[in-house]
Design goal:
By secondary structure, this protein is α+β, with helices and mostly antiparallel strands. Helices cover 20% and strands 47% of the residues. It has an eight-stranded antiparallel sheet with strand order 1-2-3-4-5-6-7-8. The termini are far apart.
Length: 132
Amino acid sequence: MNEFLKRVLMGNGDKPSEICLRSFNHYFEDAINVEWFRKEDHFEVLFYKDNLEHIAIFSQVGVLIEYRHSLPPSYLPDPVSKSAGSKGEIMNVVLKNMGNIIEYEIIIRSSALARYLINVTELGKITEEKKL
């Protein structure tokens, strides 16, 4: 079996600890297509839930540090949508949940067709903006 198919069917071989698996299953019960990646001091896990791609970061002892998932632009809260929309057309949205902090990573396209990545708080404040 070629290497690509092996990775799709079996993952990349980075097996998390049992406590990480239990924590993951607690937070993301119905996840499918789960693939784990061991980093220097944490685990990243890529998976799908509710037809959305998710990425979660767990400490080596199973603490959920952060998770991200794609989000349709129509699901943005009004303050976020208005703030991002004032910069241009909303192309892509990723919700980032870091403990009790929610932030949106949004790619917008300006009227001059330039693309930007902006970070917006849940109250609509733009905290970062960079041209792509």
